[in-house]
Amino acid sequence: MRSFLTIFCLFVCLSWTEANEVSQDFQVVKGANKTYFIHPQKTLFMEGLFICEESGLDLLSIDSEEENKEVTSEVASTGYKTFWTAGVNLNEKGNDWVWLTHKEQSPSAPITYFNWKQGQPTPVTPDSSCILFTKDDLEGTWSNVNCREEHIPICQSYISPI
Ligand SMILES: *[C@@H]1O[C@H](CO)[C@@H](O)[C@H](O)[C@H]1NC(C)=O
C-alpha cells in the first residue's frame, strides 16, 4: 500500500507546481485528439510521471481502441518497443485500474477500455501494478509490470477542439 500512497503523494504534490515549458528533448507526434511527447530515455515509472508533470503534461492514457491503434502506429518510428502509460492498480488484492491523469481536475480516472496482452494482467502485487504498453509489429498490447522497471515514458496533452 505504501508504494501506491507514494505515487499518489508525488502526483498530488506535483500538481501544485507550476507547469513549465515542455522540454525540447521530447519527440513530438501529433495525433487526432492528443499530442504525444516521447521521452528519449528509459526511466522508472515514477520518474516518467514526474518528467511529464514537470512539463505540464500527463503520462499516456489510452481510452479507446482507436487511440490504442493511434499510439501503436505513431510510436512505430521511435525504435522503442515498450512504453510507460499512466495506468496503475490501486488495490493490492484485485483489479482497480486507474489512469493517473489530470482530467477534470481529478487525480485519477477509472480505466474503461483495456487491451491486455494474452495472459495479462498477471495477479496484482505491489510489484506488478504499473501498465506497460508494448508494440509488437502491428499490435499494441498491455501488461502489468514492476513499476521499478525502466521504459520510455510517453507524455500527452489534449488538442482543444476548435
Ligand atoms: C478523436 O475524437 C473523436 C471525437 O470524440 C473520436 O470520434 C475519435 O475516435 C478520436 N480519435 C482518436 C484517435 O482517439
Automatic annotation (TrEMBL):
Cleaved signal peptide residues: 1-19
Recorded superkingdom: Eukaryota
Residues annotated as domain C-type lectin: 31-156
Tagged with keyword rRNA processing: no
Pfam families, per database record: Lectin_C
Coiled coil: none
CDD domains linked to this entry: CLECT
Gene3D superfamilies noted in UniProt: Mannose-Binding Protein A, subunit A (3.10.100.10)
Keywords carried by this UniProt record: Signal
Name of the protein described by the UniProt record: C-type lectin domain-containing protein
Source organism of this protein record: Phyllotreta striolata (Striped flea beetle)
Organism lineage string: Eukaryota, Metazoa, Ecdysozoa, Arthropoda, Hexapoda
